[in-house]
TrEMBL record, chain A:
PANTHER family reported in the protein's UniProt record: MALTOSE TRANSPORT SYSTEM PERMEASE-RELATED, MALTOSE_MALTODEXTRIN TRANSPORT SYSTEM PERMEASE PROTEIN MALG
Name of the protein in question: Multiple sugar transport system permease protein
Stored InterPro entries: BP-dep_ABC_trans_perm, MetI-like, MetI-like_sf
CDD domains: TM_PBP2
Keyword Membrane: yes
Pfam families, per the entry: BPD_transp_1 (PF00528)
Membrane topology value: Multi-pass membrane protein
Highest classification ranks of the organism: Bacteria, Bacillati, Bacillota, Bacilli, Bacillales
Membrane-spanning parts: 12-32, 71-92, 104-129, 135-158, 179-204, 240-258
Annotated family: Belongs to the binding-protein-dependent transport system permease family. MalFG subfamily.
TrEMBL record, chain B:
InterPro entries in alphabetical order: MetI-like, MetI-like_sf
Record family assignment: Belongs to the binding-protein-dependent transport system permease family.
Subcellular location: Cell membrane
Record flagged with keyword Lyase: no
GO cellular component terms attached to this protein's record: plasma membrane
Topology in the lipid bilayer: Multi-pass membrane protein
Name the record gives this protein: Multiple sugar transport system permease protein
GO biological process: transmembrane transport
UniProt keyword annotations, A-Z: Cell membrane, Membrane, Sugar transport, Transmembrane, Transmembrane helix, Transport
Organism: Sediminibacillus halophilus
From TrEMBL, chain C:
PANTHER family: MALTOSE-BINDING PERIPLASMIC PROTEIN, MALTOSE_MALTODEXTRIN-BINDING PERIPLASMIC PROTEIN
PROSITE patterns referenced in this protein's UniProt entry, alphabetically: PROKAR_LIPOPROTEIN
Pfam families listed in its UniProt record: SBP_bac_8
Protein name listed in UniProt: Multiple sugar transport system substrate-binding protein
Any GO MF annotation of the entry: maltose binding
Compositionally biased residues, Basic and acidic residues: 402-411
GO CC annotation, single: ATP-binding cassette (ABC) transporter complex, substrate-binding subunit-containing
Entries under InterPro entries matching the protein: SBP
Keywords: Signal, Sugar transport, Transport
Signal peptide region: 1-22
Region feature Disordered, mapped onto this chain: 397-420
Length: 272, 293, 420
């Protein structure tokens, strides 16, 4: 009985994931097709004639540098987000400080302007601070997405941690900061990892900030490379999908590695 | 105690100050801009004069502005409801302990890892009315006889964009809700099982009430992120056909960077902002009630 | 109640805190206008923003190198800005006071930027130069605003009718259609389960307005007479073709490149498109036989001009920029650059004295078209006018409104825009 249920759940899960990820399959498979095959009246679910030209084309296009840039921007932004957001979320969850509500409101409010309208004012600010054409423009702006998000999410999770844990620690003579580092951070590790991952991907998908603040192409992320590949006069679907595939694969790998860690935390149920 | 207070502020304030510095300026800049009359000319000379509410009046008269507000609301509610429901069901499903659960949960995240520009192009590609794979498959299995005009029928286009957005947003909701689920205390369930509660009773009597804070924050964030959607709509339809998929952020972009009516663009963004502010205040009331209770 | 007042207080204090930050506004503005006014006379550096990609980019950059080596007075540097980002970059550049000395722009945007005071009036320099009469009228017109020059055309294109010779032959059509009636008839004959007879791009962007313009002009109408009989006839033609099924209803989302791809795949027998897609068609379907002719006419053959102008930014290194511009437009150089990159020269003397275009089996189809090609507008309000046209096209082609209703509404909003 138990085995049958296990088998059912597994098949159901696989079936769902296959349907759900069909667009991703279509993206990858299109990258290997020729232009004429893409536009055939009867679609082919497997390329008749496997082509690698699209991949060769895009590797001529400095993908390595783009990748490094994406990684730097997303990585730095994530670190910045964690350093700022984790203590802040904890403080807002635990301490009875004045102006807690306005601060929560502030974190909500600051996410509300569409990216397109903060471009001009931030461009002026970064220009005055000589931050144009550096990693810092996109890093700081991407962090403005991750910080409020992480504060709000982590605050909600910190609220669920029983206060007794910290009380025990402070009886042991730990200061607030040490309690935070020694007790709270380890215990909420999975939630922090989730926020880190999400902040990372917020920044990984950035296009508009990098393109606006950095005209220097050496600093452009992968998304800008894709955008560039579209060019003025059109999209070659196979090239585009090849670029997309190449830019997504490394992230998936990172994610799968992270996922193991993350799931360990999730499954063991760190907070009981 | 005084000293302790300082420590507490050191926890909280760096993030607050960071956000104030980086977003406070754009926020104010935008509000002021929306009350002025600014085009490229006055932007260069600095000769900006105040016209107060004229921009808002002009905006209300703009063809397609009313519909864009409506579209934004439909788009947001449509996306958020389906994302949260499907994401929640998936989180519940994967929280059952079967062998592939964690692996599959991770794999689902892929849809969220694809840069939005690519997703938009991919869906545009798949939703082509003639050779698009969606129609080909639906017609192949006999579900429809004539191709659906996914993106070219003004009555359908908005929902087509919503479908793409739901697909993007499901993993995000699922992941946050999974994390929330894993933090729920197990002993409550154990005692409920002893009392003979069935799955549905446990879901509605225990899981959802306990998950309420997480559900609220997920709903709120989903609402904000969806409300200011730009890339997806811009790339998939550019706001068309006619105005059927025009949303506030695409209008704001077009007014600012296509027509150089920066003040009108700022006014459109501010209306978006005010609606979101209103929703946030409701959220604040709700969590305050919860936390005081 | 206490909570509400607390919240209100919070919002007020938030606004106060934020507006304290906004004290920076005026400071930055001062600095910026100071920066703008800074004299750059005698400066050596000339920065150019350009959106050329691929082959055009290579050629352009190598010409810049050649120019820099040829003299010591100026040092030109090209910076790539993607086409879709040009307007945004110029806008934030104005706000931040970080503009280049020159910018390449689409012909249709030139007047708007001139009106907005971003561009340098180069009329006296152009007159002194004395070469302007060697240029085609249409492209030059696109670079003028209020009777003054705000740039010079550096490459032109236009729209023509691309037709698949094999498909026409199969359907028993010997010559491509030349009139609207023939177009309707032939498109119907060419349509079958697999192939659509004809397509224009009616997407909601500048491309849609661009593609509609030849039909509008052919019927004797223009953007300021959208409610005229001719305009209605033009719109009715396209709407009818959708109703008859000889044009696909998804043209309202199809860009010109989408059309080119469908054409290359043999799913489209005829389309309206430009010379920049010739190379791609040859590459993607080397076996296909296609040709280019005039877009079928109502009253007269008409086409629409596309292309780029190089403009000089106000307050930049004007002398250096103009020096490079005239060097770049010298006949031989202009000939090589335009021919190599598959576009048409903006100079009459270049086209007339060269066989490149007349002997090319594809480009020669465009030679007569270029003669009758007119710029859109030109109007500094073109973006708004264009949007009204785009919406009218989409309303009519999706059957939401009749051609008359759609165009009446567009005519009204255009006249409001122009009167402003």
């Amino acid at each position: 009985m138990q085995r049958r249920k296990e088998w059912m759940l597994n098949s159901l899960g696989i079936l769902f994931v296959l349907i759900f990820l069909f667009p991703v399959y279509w993206m990858i498979i299109t990258a290997f097709k020729s232009q004429s095959e893409i536009f055939q009246s009867t679609p082919t679910f497997w390329p008749k004639d496997f082509q690698f030209t699209s991949f060769i084309d895009i590797f001529k296009d400095n993908v390595g540098q783009y990748f490094l840039n994406s990684f730097m921007i997303a990585g730095l932004a994530t670190i910045l987000v964690l350093v700022l957001a984790v203590p802040s979320a904890y403080g807002l969850a635990r301490f009875k400080v004045k102006g807690k509500n306005p601060m929560i409101l502030l974190f909500l409010v600051t996410q509300m302007l569409p990216a397109t309208v903060i471009l001009t004012p931030l461009f002026i600010v970064f220009n005055n601070l000589s931050l144009l054409n550096t990693y810092w423009g996109p890093v700081l702006t991407c962090a403005t997405l991750g910080v409020p998000f992480s504060v709000l999410i982590l605050r909600t999770f910190f609220l669920g941690i029983p206060k007794e844990l910290e009380e025990a620690a402070s009886i042991d003579g730990c200061g607030r900061f040490r309690t935070f580092i020694r007790v709270i951070v380890p215990i909420s590790y999975p939630s922090i990892v989730v926020c880190a991952a999400i902040s990372f991907f917020f920044s990984w998908g950035d296009l508009i900030f990098s393109m606006t603040f950095n005209r220097n192409q050496d600093l452009w992320p992968l998304t800008a490379g894709i955008y560039n590949a579209i060019g003025r006069y059109g999209i070659e679907w196979n090239d585009l999908m090849a670029f997309a595939t190449v830019s997504v694969l490394p992230v998936i790998v990172i994610f799968v590695i992270l996922q193991k860690q993350l799931v360990k935390g999730l499954v063991s149920g760190s907070i009981k | 105690m005084k000293k302790g207070r300082w420590g507490e502020y050191l926890f909280i304030y760096p993030a607050v100050i960071f956000m104030l510095l980086l977003i406070g300026y754009p926020l104010i800049y935008n509000i002021i801009l929306s009350f002025q009359d600014v085009d490229l000319n006055s932007l260069a000379t600095g000769d900006k004069h105040f016209v107060w509410f004229d921009n808002y009046k002009a905006l209300a008269d703009q063809d397609g502005f009313g519909i864009s507000v409506w579209n934004t609301i439909v788009y947001t509610l449509g996306s958020v409801v389906f994302q949260v429901v499907i994401g929640f069901l998936l989180a519940l499903f994967f929280s059952m302990k079967f062998k592939l659960a964690s692996f599959l949960r991770g794999v689902v995240m892929i849809s969220w890892l694809i840069p939005l520009t690519i997703t938009a192009l991919l869906y545009k590609f798949m939703m082509g009315s003639g050779e698009g794979i969606f129609n080909q498959m639906l017609m192949g299995i006999g579900f429809i006889d004539d191709p659906i005009q996914w993106l070219s029928n003004p009555d359908i286009a908005l929902w087509s964009v919503i479908i793409a957005n739901i697909w993007v947003g499901i993993p995000f909701n699922m992941l946050l809700l999974s994390t929330g689920l894993s933090n729920l205390p197990e002993d409550v369930y154990e005692s409920a099982s002893l009392d003979g509660a069935n799955w549905f009773q446990k879901l509605f009597k225990i899981t959802i009430p306990l998950l309420r804070p997480v559900l609220l924050v997920v709903l709120m964030l989903g609402f904000i992120y969806t409300f200011k959607v730009f890339d997806l709509v811009f790339v998939m339809t550019g706001g068309g056909p006619i105005n059927s998929t025009e949303v506030l952020s695409t209008i704001a972009y077009r007014l600012s960077f296509n027509e150089f009516q920066f003040s009108l663009g700022a006014a459109a963004a501010n209306i978006l902002f005010i609606i979101l502010l209103f929703v946030s205040v409701i959220y604040l009331f709700m969590i305050n009630k919860d936390e005081e209770a | 109640m206490k909570r509400i007042s607390g919240l209100l207080l919070a919002i007020v204090s938030l606004v106060v805190v934020l507006s304290a930050c906004s004290g920076g506004t005026s400071i930055t503005d001062d600095e910026q206008s100071g920066g703008e006014g800074e004299a750059t006379e005698g400066s050596k550096d000339v920065t150019i923003w350009f959106h050329y990609t691929g082959k055009q980019q290579e050629e352009f950059l190598s010409l810049i190198d050649e120019y820099n080596e040829s003299q010591d007075q100026y040092e030109v540097e090209g910076e790539y800005v993607p086409f879709a980002d040009v307007k945004k970059q110029l806008s934030v550049g104005v706000a931040g006071g970080t503009l280049p000395d020159m910018a390449l722009m689409d012909v249709v945007d030139n007047a708007a930027f001139a009106e907005q005071g971003v561009l340098e009036d180069i009329t006296s320099k152009v007159e002194e130069w004395g070469e302007i009469d060697n240029f085609y009228e249409g492209p030059v017109e696109s670079a003028t605003y209020d009777g003054k020059y705000y740039g010079l055309p550096v490459g032109s294109n236009a729209l023509g009718l691309f037709y698949n010779e094999d498909l026409l032959k199969e359907a028993g059509i010997e010559e491509p259609p030349t009139t609207w009636d023939e177009l309707k008839e032939d498109a119907k004959a060419l349509t079958n389960d697999d192939t659509k007879g004809f397509a224009v791009s009616a997407v909601k962007s500048e491309e849609g307005a661009f593609q509609f313009y030849p039909f509008l002009r052919s019927a004797g109408a223009d953007y300021d007479s959208l409610d005229s009989e001719g305009a209605v006839e033009a719109m009715t033609l396209l709407t009818d073709m959708i109703e008859e099924g000889s044009m696909g209803s998804d043209v309202v989302n199809a860009t010109q490149d989408d059309l080119a791809r469908q054409f290359a795949a043999g799913k489209l027998a005829m389309m309206v498109n430009g010379p920049w897609n010739i190379e791609r068609l040859k590459e993607e379907s080397p076996d296909m036989n296609f040709s280019i002719s005039q877009i079928p006419k109502d009253e007269q053959f008409a086409s629409v001009l596309g292309g780029e102008n190089l403009t000089i930014i106000k307050g930049g290194n004007v002398d250096g920029a103009f020096d490079f511009l005239t060097w770049f437009l010298e006949p031989d150089r202009h000939e090589t650059f335009t021919y190599e990159t598959g576009v048409f020269p903006a100079r009459k003397d270049v086209l007339e004295n060269s066989d490149h275009w007349t002997e090319d089996p594809y480009l020669n189809g465009f030679v007569p078209i270029m003669d009758g090609a007119v710029p859109r507008g030109p109007s500094p309000q073109w973006p708004e006018i264009s949007e009204s046209i785009q919406i009218a096209i989409q309303e009519s082609l999706t059957g939401t409104k009749s051609p008359e209703e759609a165009l009446d509404k567009a005519a009204e909003s255009v006249s409001e825009t122009v009167d402003e």
